[in-house]
Amino acid sequence: MKPNPAREIFLNALLTTDLGSMPLLGRGKVRDLYAVDGALLLVATDRISAFDHVLGTGIPGKGKILTQISLFWFELLGGVAANHLITADVNAYPSSLRPYVDQLEGRSMLVKRAQMFPVECVARGYLAGSGWKEYRATGTVCGMRLPAELQDGSRLPEAIFTPATKSQDGAHDENISFAETEARVGVENASELRRLTLALYQRAESYSQARGLILADTKFEFGRTAEGIILADEVLTPDSSRFWEAERWTPGGPQPSFDKQYVRDYLESIHWNKQAPAPGLPDSVVERTKAKYLEAFRRLTGRTIEA
43: which strand partners? Predict the structure, then answer.
């Protein structure tokens, strides 16, 4: 039988890590989290989620692409906010991890432990997604009144902080007001999280514009260590951010993007009821989605990557 390159690529997706007796703290929609010698090990798998469900098919190399994008932004934004990264060099990892280098190379980060804040810190410079849905219904986003007659994809007069709940069980995050954020994390912490979120967004949005991309919105996660508040988890990847093609931006509907919208569109086309079990993806959708992630990496960093 003639080999099928697409099928071989599909089979190379890393969906679940196995680090032997290393303490596994949890598996998220994409990342597996381990405890390692007083630190944490974040491993980005090739799992992909949509509509709050992990799909039955992965995107080969996605975890490596996302990790390398995060590392790029951690370095670029280091002057705006401290972050949790210790090292992403597997040769500098504790010796106990050496047997698992094939699972960790390029897709993992050794990071500091932090007490995480129980909110998603979202910055929006454009109206899209849940923000657009809320605005269309109420004229507000997270309790903030916005100008009348905005469209799906409209640029906002200024970037806004629109926090959301942080789901612990895979359920959908819900937008909350700033007052609710203060109640959850305290007045001073809420103010600092808003300041950091908007400062990071403004720096990243300016950089993205110079690369011909619009950063419509993004979400950050923060934690506290003895040294203060730090940026954690992933940052400014196509999984947590909307990147649009600047030259093709036209308010009034969905914009051409570099995220997993291609996957969402496919799932809508097959009329999936968005209930478990989630379906798999055909090879054509897997290949197209991977190409989107690779293009996002190239456009943002100016480099290519083998993934």
Answer: 32, 108
